[in-house]
Amino acid sequence: MQKEHILVVEDDVSLSEWISDYLISHGFEVSVANRGDSAVELIKVDQPDLVLLDIMLPEKNGFDVCREVREFYPSPILMMTACSEETDEVLGLELGADDYINKPVRPRILLARIHALLRRNDDKNQLTTQLTFGDLTLDDKSKSASFKNDMVPLSSNEFDVLWLLASQAGEVISRTELVNKLRGIQYDGFDRSIDIRISRIRKKLNDDPNNPRRIKTIRGKGYLFVEDVWT
């Protein structure tokens, strides 16, 4: 059975070696890039199963790497940040990262996040389902959405949220369920990544953020994808 390949992009050599050794000991194939510009080339050529991407990198930072590779790289990106500021996490998610992990890296948490992202990606690759609601069409295989015959420029993690909501149209889905299914962790009451993604999805689908009628917020319960308002 072929080992899953992880590219570790980290300029701290001792940390990248520690992460690499730890992941290899858990059955992964690992390669390492210590600069942002070389990481872009490696991702393009190798198409690893997952990229573990630090933000602070020489030559090209992690945000720029993430933005650039999302044009040709569909697999998961897990960002690492040494900053506790929410803005770093938000920007990474907006640029197409699938999840983030804070430094100092805790090995068991890192492994759990990687397994969750790879498992979710495998599930998607096995499905070719398409969902249609009026003028909205979602294609899970290509992770694309079109509305009124125009492509909707969704990032991969925004599409994941929309697909999960649409696949349970008419049902209220709690933040706890969304965080658990999309990030593989328990909701701690403070994680705003799902709210941020839904806010951006609404804007891209012309859903009034002050009075949304397509993706509704049900106070104290979660979110509701409405079926019959997509014409």
3D shape: elongated
Largest sheet: 5 strands, parallel
- CATH topology name of the largest domain, in short, is Rossmann fold
Low-confidence region ranges: none
- The neighbouring-strand order within the major sheet is 2-1-3-4-5
Rg, nearest Å? 18 Å
Structural class: alpha/beta
Helical residues, percent: 40-55%
CATH class of the largest domain: Alpha Beta
How many distinct helices? 8
Describe what this molecule looks like in 3D:
By secondary structure, the chain is α/β, with parallel strands linked by helices. It has 2 domains: 5-125, Response regulator (Rossmann fold); 130-225, Arc Repressor Mutant, subunit A (Orthogonal Bundle). 40% of the residues lie in helices and 21% in strands. It is built from 8 helices and 12 strands. The strands form 3 sheets. The chain has a 5-stranded parallel sheet with strand order 2-1-3-4-5, with helices on both faces. Strands 6-7-8-9 form a 4-stranded antiparallel sheet, covered by helices on one side. Strand 11 and strand 12 form a beta hairpin. Helix 2 packs parallel to helix 3 (62-69).
